[in-house]
Amino acid sequence: MQVSKQSVPTTETSLFLLHGFLDAETCANLREEAFVSPTTKAPVYMHGSPDYVHETIRKTTSFHPPAEAVASIHEKLSLQKSALETHFGLSLTDCEPPQFLLYQPGDFFVRHQDGNTEQLEFDHLRIRRISVVVFLNDSCAEPKENTFSGGFLNLYGQDYAAADDPLSFSLMGETGLLVAFTADTVHEVVPVTRGQRFTIISWFR
To answer: Which residues pair with 181 in a beta bridge?
Structure first.
């Protein structure tokens, strides 16, 4: 199922969608920050590995906007705590500081889980209850300014190892859209094929 602004599963408790969480101007300003802020390669935490960069598993760039921009987004995300608790029927404590990501053509993140499962070896991952993704630009099949192709956020059932596990949702990017799902949901970012995909990610614990 592909979810867009015209097709929203409002009764589907496994997915929380909030259109217009960020306005277009804020999204544009954050996209600009990707090119003037310090950057690092996005990490992957793997049991037994001293390294945090594994580009066969996750290939994307973290950019680090000024502290005031990070704090502003963190505050906006934290204000969604009550709505997320109601939607998912969970009691949440706080929201991790947001991370800002730039996916270039060819960048991806293989199928994985973010937290709330004993499969994970790292304590800071196990305590994550809700994953949040905020899109900063639109997905579009046709070449248009400030859009990207590919880079779908695919969400699956709970069988982490099954390559044929059925696809539940395939989410297209939409400027300002906030998407939240339980942190044990298996998901992936398929390779970007055109343009640049800008997102913010965070987790409620």
So the answer is: 131
Structural domain spans, the chain? 2-204
pLDDT in tens, 55-78: 889 999 999 999 999 999 999 999
Contacts (Cβ under 8 Å, ≥6 apart) of 76: 21, 22
| Burial tier of 154 (Cβ tally within 10 Å: 0-12, 13-18, 19+) | middle
Rounded to whole angstroms, how far apart are CA atoms 34 and 84? 28
Nearest-CA neighbor of 57 among 160, 188, 159, 182?
Answer: 188
Give the Cα separation of 4 and 205 in Å (integer). 27
What CATH superfamily is the domain 2-204? q2cbj1_9rhob like domain (2.60.120.620)
Distance CA 115, CA 53 (A): 19
**Main-chain dihedrals φ then ψ at residue 195, nearest 5 degrees:** 75, -160
